[in-house]
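--- STAGE predict ---
source: upstream dedup step, 1 unique chain passed
mode: sequence only
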Amino acid sequence: MRRFPPQRIICLTEETVETLYLLGEDHRIVGVSGYAVRPPRVRREKPRVAAFTSADIPKILALDPDLVLTFSDLQAEIAAALIRAGIAVHAFNQRDIAGILAMIRTLGALVGAAGRAEVLAASLEERLAQVAASARGHPRPRVYFEEWDEPMISGIGWVSELIGIAGGEDVFAQLARAPAARDRIVGADAVIAAAPELILASWCGKKVRPEAIRGRTGWEMIPAVAANRIAEIKSPLILQPGPAALTDGLDAIVAAVRGVRT
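--- STAGE serialize ---
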């Protein structure tokens, strides 16, 4: 990194964009992922330079960044290309709530805003604790979270944890620690056998079709399907491992879980 704190940052995923805005450090951002939508004004204010697994390397280089922020092995090739071009890259890889909070604190330190990042992370931790406390003593409905439909992929670590905090029980919690989507593929019969009382779906940017879920062979016997308890959670709220998941994403899960209890 040429200077500290970095003056020109490019964020190739949404969660670091939102975090920098929340920290009041958005003036450092000179380029973002095309999926960045939080806060809404980011789409007007910042040029888009990448999708998720692809990026416009010449455009990134033309923006002369001090630092590029990436996420996960899925962006490894992008990171390698930038490093070869002499760009400083920091790759985050958070897959659970602890990792999200660590990302916030680390990003704060990287931009010289460690104090504000600590306040933000601590406030999110307190909020999680409050939601978990409010769910204690209530029935815990069994929840199936579907991250993709073909093949069916169950929820990743932070999603599973948030279901538990919201007062539900992830029926495939044993798979949630697997970071790769291919390791969280589930079969239709396994979902039937798990008998979830609530189905939450977020098809990674594709609109969820509840009628398609209801129409799957044999699924009419699943309690969630029989009671029409199928809810979509928009991908930016739950599939980005950042502040959105711990706030609006969690609220959406809480609302759906409470709906099962009533």
